[in-house]
């Protein structure tokens, strides 16, 4: 009974240890929400409703660009928004292939009004038209016919039976809708058919131009389409004439005016010009806009005009969303939607201030007088800084102020400040590049040398490798290197050159080795590459690459790879058992954890997990789980491995912890060598039920590895929960487990209390990854959760033991001290008085 | 081929449920899971727009549903199988429910039990999801109270001797009590002295012998 009591109190202390207080909300964490690249947009008087390529419908404030509400629909991989119509309510059609959802949304609040699904019998190209409360669906079957169905938009009730219209001109990819027509280009002719009103006949009109012309939707006053040929377009009114104006393909009509963007080469401050002309009066006008530098090429998504004042919504090639007000040409706001898809994250320490850097040079002179004057001057400067309270973007004592460098999928780099609510410090745009990862060459520790980071990317058109070196603090470019070949593997060599620059070693697809910078020191290293299910190990020698080992995983899908973070330090070499003996950890820095899923006729699908030594190719440990399904998430740290999978037999998510030990004798306490294997490590393993659906998993990282470890698990419900490693750590079967051994008795289900949610009520949409970096403060790690949203916070797995508590009462201490001093003087006085009185007796 | 398993046969349940999740043609039947959310009574005051902030996730977002103004929800296009349905709201906790749809389109809803998947505790279908409680994300700050301070053992240790030091001399000044105390002291002194004398006399012999033995023992240990 007492044991249980002990256990409960221990549990309570550990589990409640990591919750934050309500008044800490927003003190060191921040969240930024995004919507992705905009697809459709409609203006309302008070709001701007958009749908995006992330299959999201959101309402933005036209004044500030803030998200008023946002609703995430199905997975954007398979479902895309097809139609957005804003009348009184917003209507969306989203879906893909053969499955669609029609939904009505309440525009002010964003709650659902109605919803109905549509499942098609056969796949084809679907087109949608909305007129009043009539929703028309056109299914184009290429070269044969089209099927037209009319629905009531609110209920999904079929108004008119599906009409099969045999028309050979239906081409699918060169068709658009122009209310109420369905228009296609076929054999140099333009065909259109009224699909809303029955009984219409297809009309056609010859067009000039070859087969390379394309059609674009054009929402004009009369039903019309844009006929695009190379870089110019013409407006074709259906049943009317081809308008004489030559317009850009991004032309948009608002009311009776047509707006288009042009590059403005006359004025280098205002690179973009909006040209507009009225279709009725033919009046033309042109406004230069102060389009922000650093954004990609813009195009108009939508707009709204009230008299002469117009608002244009621009999207750019780097997914930024900008609202421009006309006729002033002023940019109201910009949203960097590129941040909704981050590929790689690195945390950078800020450089020391010039003042602190000057200490380095203080003792270089031998002259006593100059040294003395320098000392006095720096100290006065320090005093001035202290009094004025100016610190700026320099390093703080605890390493809590960092610059987060992120590489986004569109090839734009951002520097984000961890403090100041995640404001963007700098951006850098690399066109036509697909980032792969960021590599740190030099940190800011080597003042006065600035930090340097390399972005490893792939050219979108050629597929060749791209290396872009930059200063992560200021965002300045240090040179771009385009390679003619694909990159197979790249890594940062551990040995620095005389400028403290770690060389990046790039291995091309043809096994060629290049070192960046080229004068970098030659190294001997072991490298591995993974090509589907073939893992290949090489030895990198000054004269080339030599294959050492390979591991064929067979017919399977590689679903997870994990290695230990390079900066991780293992503080304790062993685990102390109840009899005070030490069980030494098997800490192998070269381990690669691999997870594969393979089909099995009996067990459906089998999950295999391997721990492979990256130097020798030796499989240290392997295991398999039958009837296991993805998603599989792997985390390897210190001497342990944690992975999650879905158990199809019991239909639950399970989490497995595996720990490797050398045993009671440590083979080599100074240096680990993969070649010096005398025996296999001892493996302890235990599995648990995880009552959540993990989408990402990571582990906290601290400067010296003294602090306990927490597993950070991002779940599908949008929360990031921390699970103490101690809860998962495998127990020794034949040993007592209790609070004295700092061990919890085994529990099959891991409890996830709401206090363990590090993002409290800030639900994060579509979490992709959790990036972790140590702070200089041993107790603390930085955490950046990215997906559709960005969330930054600090976690302290063992509480902030190295900091005074935030609620430490300084006033009480001062009060008590003052009280004691006063009391001692008073008693002294009283005692003297008493002594005097007694002397007189 | 597929059959609905009888509720009584608990042992047979896992077997047939596994079969139910096997589906020859994934598009053979598409069903809709329906239900309604019953908010806590203080919903309307704290969260005016809770419908828009609430989502329905089936199997961790494989299928999703939205909540209408009246609290009802429908998750469309779900093939037959077994699903865990969760209600997600940032402020309130809801209990997840397992919904099973067999190939004939029959529904059954039961409580989620990950440890004993075979145990069936049925809940009504269409689902009635009630908010359990407001989610507590935060730790409560300890508040400073005077009672905590007074009953602190350190404070007690300081205060009690202080009380004794201050009060006892005052009591001594009272002539009657002084007399009484003197009496008691003389009595006890007398008795105690007597007893101690006897005891010391009695123990005089063996105690010296013991003292001689002790160093020997310690020498042996070395």
TrEMBL record, chain A:
Major location (coarse): endoplasmic reticulum
* Superkingdom assignment: Eukaryota
**Pfam families reported for this sequence:** Beta-prop_EMC1_N (PF25293), EMC1_C (PF07774)
Cellular-component GO terms for this entry: EMC complex
Residue ranges constituting the EMC1 first beta-propeller domain according to the UniProt record:
19-121
ER membrane protein complex subunit 1 C-terminal domain ranges (all copies)? 637-840
Task: Give its localization.
Answer: Endoplasmic reticulum membrane
Q: Does the keyword Membrane apply?
A: yes
Transmembrane residue ranges: 812-831
Which Gene3D superfamilies has this protein been placed in?
A: YVTN repeat-like/Quinoprotein amine dehydrogenase
Query: Hey, what's the signal peptide range on this chain?
Result: 1-19
Membrane topology designation? Single-pass type I membrane protein
Q: Does the keyword Glycoprotein apply?
A: yes
Keywords from the UniProt entry: Endoplasmic reticulum, Glycoprotein, Membrane, Signal, Transmembrane, Transmembrane helix
Similarity-based family: Belongs to the EMC1 family.
Q: Which PANTHER family match?
A: ER MEMBRANE PROTEIN COMPLEX SUBUNIT 1
How is the quaternary structure described? Component of the ER membrane protein complex (EMC).
Kindly provide the name given to this protein in its UniProt entry. ER membrane protein complex subunit 1
Q: Which species is listed as the source?
A: Tribolium castaneum (Red flour beetle)
Q: What is the lineage of its organism?
A: Eukaryota, Metazoa, Ecdysozoa, Arthropoda, Hexapoda
From TrEMBL, chain B:
Keyword DNA damage included in the entry's annotation: no
Classify the source by domain of life: Eukaryota
Record-linked InterPro entries: Beta_sandwich_EMC7, Carb-bd-like_fold, EMC7
Location comes to: Membrane
State the residue spans of region: Disordered. Answer: 201-222
Main location per the UniProt record: membrane
Report what the protein is called.
ER membrane protein complex subunit 7 homolog-like Protein
High-level lineage: Eukaryota, Metazoa, Ecdysozoa, Arthropoda, Hexapoda
UniProt gene name = AUGUSTUS-3.0.2_09444
């Amino acid at each position: 009974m007492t044991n249980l009591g002990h256990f409960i109190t221990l549990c309570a202390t550990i589990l409640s240890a990591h919750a934050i207080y309500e008044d800490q909300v927003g003190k060191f964490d921040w969240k930024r929400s995004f919507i992705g690249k905009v697809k459709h947009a409609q203006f309302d008087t008070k709001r701007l409703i958009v749908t995006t390529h992330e299959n999201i419908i959101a309402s933005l404030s036209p004044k500030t660009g803030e998200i008023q509400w946002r609703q995430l629909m199905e997975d954007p991989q398979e479902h895309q928004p097809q139609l957005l119509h804003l009348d009184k309510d917003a209507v969306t059609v989203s879906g893909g292939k053969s499955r669609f959802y029609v939904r009505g949304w309440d525009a002010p609040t964003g709650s659902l009004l109605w919803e109905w699904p549509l499942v098609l019998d056969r796949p084809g190209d679907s087109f949608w038209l909305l007129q009043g409360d009539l929703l028309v669906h056109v299914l184009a079957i290429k070269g044969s016919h089209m099927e037209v169905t009319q629905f009531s938009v609110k209920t999904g009730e079929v108004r008119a039976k599906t009409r099969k219209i045999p028309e050979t001109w239906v081409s699918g990819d060169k068709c658009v809708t122009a209310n109420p027509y369905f228009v296609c280009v076929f054999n140099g002719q333009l065909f259109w058919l009224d699909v809303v009103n029955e009984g219409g006949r297809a009309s056609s009109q010859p067009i000039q131009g070859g087969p390379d012309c394309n059609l674009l939707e054009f929402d004009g006053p009369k039903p019309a389409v844009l006929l695009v040929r190379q870089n110019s377009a013409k407006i074709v009114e259906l049943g009317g004439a081809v308008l004489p104006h030559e317009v850009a393909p991004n032309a948009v009509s608002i009311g009776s005016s047509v707006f288009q963007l042009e590059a403005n080469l006359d004025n280098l401050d205002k690179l973009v010009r909006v040209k507009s002309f009225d279709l009725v009066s033919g009046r033309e006008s042109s406004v230069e806009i102060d389009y922000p530098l650093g954004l990609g090429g813009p195009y108009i998504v939508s707009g709204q005009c009230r008299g002469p004042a117009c608002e244009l919504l621009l999207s750019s090639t780097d997914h930024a969303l900008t609202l421009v007000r006309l006729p002033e040409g002023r940019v109201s706001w910009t949203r960097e939607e590129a941040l909704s898809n981050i590929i790689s994250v690195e945390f950078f320490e800020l450089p020391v201030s010039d003042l602190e850097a000057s200490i380095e040079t203080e003792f270089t002179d031998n002259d006593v007088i100059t040294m003395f004057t320098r000392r006095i001057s720096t100290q006065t400067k320090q005093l001035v800084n202290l009094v004025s309270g100016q610190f700026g973007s320099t390093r703080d004592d605890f390493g809590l102020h960092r610059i987060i460098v992120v590489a986004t999928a569109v090839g734009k780099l951002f520097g984000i400040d961890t403090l100041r609510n995640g404001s963007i410090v700098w951006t850098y745009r690399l066109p036509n590049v697909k980032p792969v990862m960021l590599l740190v060459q030099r940190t800011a520790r080597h003042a006065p040398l600035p930090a340097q980071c390399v972005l490893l990317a792939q050219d979108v058109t050629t597929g060749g490798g791209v290396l872009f070196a930059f200063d992560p603090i200021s965002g300045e470019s240090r040179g771009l290197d385009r390679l003619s070949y694909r990159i197979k593997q790249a890594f940062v060599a551990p040995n620095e050159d005389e400028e403290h620059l770690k060389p990046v070693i790039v291995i091309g697809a043809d096994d060629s080795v290049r070192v960046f910078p080229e004068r970098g020191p030659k190294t001997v290293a072991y490298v591995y590459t993974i090509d589907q299910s073939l893992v290949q190990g090489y030895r990198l020698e000054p004269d080339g690459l030599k294959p050492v080992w390979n591991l064929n995983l067979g017919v399977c899908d590689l679903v997870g790879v994990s290695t230990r973070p390079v900066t991780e330090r293992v503080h304790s070499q062993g685990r102390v058992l109840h009899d005070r003996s030490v069980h030494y950890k098997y800490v192998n820095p070269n381990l690669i954890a691999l997870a594969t899923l393979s089909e099995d006729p009996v067990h459906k699908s089998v999950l295999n997990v391997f721990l492979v030594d990256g130097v020798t190719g030796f499989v240290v440990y392997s295991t398999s789980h039958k009837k296991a399904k993805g998603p599989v998430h792997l985390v390897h740290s210190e001497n342990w491995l944690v992975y999650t999978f879905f158990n199809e037999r019991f239909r639950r998510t399970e989490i497995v912890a595996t720990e490797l030990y050398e045993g009671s004798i440590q083979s080599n306490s100074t240096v680990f060598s993969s070649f010096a294997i005398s025996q296999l490590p001892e493996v302890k393993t235990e599995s648990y039920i995880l009552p959540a659906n993990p989408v990402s998993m990571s582990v906290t990282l601290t400067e010296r590895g003294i602090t306990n470890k927490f597993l950070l698990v991002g779940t599908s419900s949008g929360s990031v929960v921390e699970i103490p490693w101690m809860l998962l750590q495998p127990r020794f079967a034949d040993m007592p487990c209790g609070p004295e051994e700092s061990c919890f008795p085994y529990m099959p289900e891991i409890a996830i209390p709401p206090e363990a949610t590090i993002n409290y009520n800030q639900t994060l949409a579509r979490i992709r990854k959790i990036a972790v970096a140590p702070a200089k403060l041993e107790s603390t790690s930085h955490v950046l959760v990215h997906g559709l949203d960005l969330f930054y916070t600090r976690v302290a797995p063992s509480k902030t033991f190295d900091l005074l508590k935030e609620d430490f009462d300084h006033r009480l201490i001062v009060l008590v001290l003052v009280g004691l001093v006063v009391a001692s003087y008073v008693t002294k006085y009283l005692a003297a008085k008493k002594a005097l009185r007694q002397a007189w007796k | 081929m597929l059959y609905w398993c009888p509720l009584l046969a608990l042992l047979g349940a896992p077997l047939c449920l596994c079969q139910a999740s096997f589906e020859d043609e994934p598009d053979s039947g598409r069903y809709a899971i329906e239900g309604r959310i019953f908010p806590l009574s203080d919903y309307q005051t704290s969260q005016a727009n809770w419908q828009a902030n609430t989502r329905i996730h089936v199997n961790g977002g494989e299928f999703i549903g939205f909540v209408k103004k009246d609290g009802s929800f429908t998750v469309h296009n779900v093939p037959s199988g077994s699903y865990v349905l969760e209600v997600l709201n940032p402020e309130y906790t809801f209990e997840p429910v397992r919904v099973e749809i067999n190939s004939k389109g029959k529904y059954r809803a039961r409580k989620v039990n990950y440890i004993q998947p075979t145990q069936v505790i049925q809940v009504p279908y269409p689902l009635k999801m009630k908010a359990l409680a407001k989610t507590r994300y935060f730790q409560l700050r300890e508040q400073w109270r005077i009672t905590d301070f007074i009953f602190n053992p350190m404070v007690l240790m300081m205060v009690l001797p202080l009380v004794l030091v201050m009060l006892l001399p005052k009591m001594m000044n009272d002539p009657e009590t002084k007399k009484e105390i003197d009496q008691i002291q003389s009595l006890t002194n007398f008795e105690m002295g007597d007893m101690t004398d006897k005891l010391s006399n009695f123990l005089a012999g063996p105690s010296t012998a013991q003292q001689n033995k002790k160093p020997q023992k310690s020498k042996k240990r070395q």
